Amino acid sequence: xxxxxxxxxxxxxxxxxxxxxxxxxxxxxxxxxxxxxxxxxxxxxxxxxxxxxxxxxxxxxxxxxxxxxxxxxxxxxxxxxxxxxxxxxxxxxxxxxxxxxxxxxxxxxxxxxxxxxxxxxxxxxxxxxxxxxxxxxxxxxxxxxxxxxxxxxxxxxxxxxxxxxxxxxxxxxxxxxxxxxxxxxxxxxxxxxxxxxxxxxxxxxxxxxxxxxxxxxxxxxxxxxxxxxxxxxxxxxxxxxxxxxxxxxxxxxxxxxxxxxxxxxxxxxxxxxxxxxxxxxxxxxxxxxxxxxxxxxxxxxxxxxxxxxxxxxxxxxxxxxxxxxxxxxxxxxxxxxxxxxxxxxxxxxxxxxx
Length: 354
Hints:
By secondary structure, the protein is an alpha+beta fold. Helix content is about 40%, strand content about 20%. The chain has helices at about 20-25, 45-50, 55, 60-65, 70-80, 125-155, 155-170, 175-200, 215-225, 250-265, 335-345; strands at about 30-35, 40, 85-95, 100-110, 115-125, 210, 235, 245, 275-280, 285-290, 295, 300-305.
């Protein structure tokens, strides 16, 4: 005899969820837009992004919310025309309320025959910074290889040229001595540049020890105030609860001194010149290691901020790459070296300008 047990189906513990409740739970700004380009729904994340209540966002034209000539309006039109999902990555979204942000925009027609499309905006923040950091590290590795080649192929011939010029100078007249001294001066300048580049080929691991970052910042401030930043007002905003940083004391001084020197150059001639030095705790920031599944926690943030004229939008994305500089007599290696040292410490460096 075969017995077939009968079981009662379990009662479902899940209740139907309204679509608006799902949209409200999204961490990214979402807007429902009709075919006339009018916003008919905005979730709480959109209220925060646009700094405007949902009641005011509704019935507004998307064109009035988006920046002038923004591709987001065109994306919505494409979604209505094609009936398919369309996306645009790395869009600059700038307005008085929003500020200037880089976002990814996704537009999807709703499948309920409502005649609406859903626009979702995803701001690039930490992920975008991580991508830039990888570019900076690749640039530093390129300079490493270049430095090794230059050190071998240039420094030896330079020594020969300088020695020959010194020999000629011994029997030269006063006019020719000016030329031989010019040769020596220029060869010394090239040698110094190569010496600076040789630092990039140093791939030894750092000798990390616990470092009080506030002592480092205080030391850098004293050096700056006694030399290149005598007429600059320093403002310090520190989190006293920060734990020690694992790193090399002297190299961290080198990094911060370079950043403060750049800030001092930026405020040169500015009335009321100020440099802000700050530390803060940023929980939840992690960086993926190359070739590993491990993720490093980066909760400590150091900042050097000035009230200068800022950096142009053309230079800003490549500011940490070698030979990129806005200074008339700069070599463009200072910030590239800073990026290398920060990378050696397992950190991330980012520049923002207004």
